[in-house]
Amino acid sequence: MSQKIVKAIPEDELNQLSKEQLVEIIKALQEEVARLKQSLNFNKFSSLKPP
């Protein structure tokens, strides 16, 4: 999974994008959410270990 950083896009610019461009943005956001969830789960389990 690639680690793309998705930056905020102003609403007026989003309104000008094609359907295909919006789909690509949604895919990138879904990947980022999955990566962040995985990172959160890793941190949650690793923090249970005693020092």
**Beta strand %:** under 5%
What order do the SSEs take from the amino end to the carboxyl end, as H and E?
Answer: HH
Gap between N and C termini, in Å? 31 Å
Structural class: mainly alpha
Major beta sheet, specifics?
Answer: none
Proportion of residues in helical segments: 55-70%
The radius of gyration is: 16 Å
List the uncertain runs.
none
**Beta strands, count:** 0
Based on CA inertia axes, which overall geometry fits? elongated
Number of separate helices: 2
**Whole-number mean pLDDT:** 83
Kindly describe this structure.
- The chain is mostly helical and 51 residues long.
- The chain contains two helices and no strands.
- It has helices at 11-14, 19-46.
- The longest helix has 28 residues, at 19-46.
- 0% of the residues are buried.
Topology:
Layout: H1 11-14, H2 19-46
Which key features would you list for this structure?
2 helices; 51 residues; mainly alpha
How would you summarize what this structure contains?
The chain is mainly α and 51 residues long. The chain is built from 2 helices and no strands.
